[in-house]
Amino acid sequence: MHVIQLTDGIKLRILSNSDALTVARLDFARNAVAPLHHHPHEEVNVVLFGSFAFTLRGVVQTVGPGESVTIPANVAHFIADLGEGGSVLSVWTPSRTDLMARLKALELKAA
């Protein structure tokens, strides 16, 4: 399985990748936080289960299952689980070649 441990409490599973986009599932442990970051990719997140606070441009948006948040390219943002653990389906465009390179390095190390 294509899994990257982003932080102690967050695992990212690559579900699909092409030149145009990357699709992944992010699994959050209780109270896990994806720290403030930005990247040159537009990002769409759909909460599969759990509740999350997405913060971008200083605005906090609380979302639950079936709700989504769109994050423009190059906008700093972070995501915090609100205490129960959960999962988010994330889609980035263009492809997250950085994540794919990280995954390849992990797979080579494991071989």
Attribute tags:
111 residues; mainly beta; Jelly Rolls; 54% strand; globular
Explain what you see.
The chain is mainly beta and 111 residues long. The protein is globular. Strands 1-2-3-10-5-8 form a six-stranded antiparallel sheet, covered by helices on one side. Helix content is 13%, strand content 54%. 21% of the residues are buried. It contains one helix and ten strands. The mean pLDDT is 94.
List the helices and strands and how they pair.
Blueprint lengths: L2 E5 L2 E8 L4 E7 L4 E5 L4 E8 L2 E5 L2 E5 L4 E4 L5 E5 L4 E8 L3 H14 L1
Antiparallel strand pairs: 1-2, 2-3, 3-10, 4-9, 5-8, 5-10, 6-7, 6-9
Summarize the structure.
This protein has 111 residues and is mainly beta. It has one helix at 97-110; strands at 3-7, 10-17, 22-28, 33-37, 42-49, 52-56, 59-63, 68-71, 77-81, 86-93. The model has no long low-confidence stretch (mean pLDDT 94).
What is the terminal separation in angstroms? 14 Å
CATH architecture assignment name: Sandwich
What is the ordering of alpha helices and beta strands?
EEEEEEEEEEH
Task: Characterize the main sheet.
Answer: 6 strands, antiparallel
Q: What structural category arises from helix and sheet content?
A: mainly beta
Total strand count, please? 10
| Number of helical segments with 4 or more residues | 1
CATH classification, class level: Mainly Beta
Strand numbers in spatial order across the main sheet:
1-2-3-10-5-8
Stretches with pLDDT under 50, minimum 5 residues: none
CATH superfamily: Jelly Rolls
Q: Do you know the CATH topology? A: Jelly Rolls
What's the number of structural domains? 1
Label the overall shape: globular
Average pLDDT taken over every residue: 94
User: What fraction of the residues are assigned to beta strands by DSSP?
Assistant: over 45%
The percent of residues in helical segments reads 10-25%
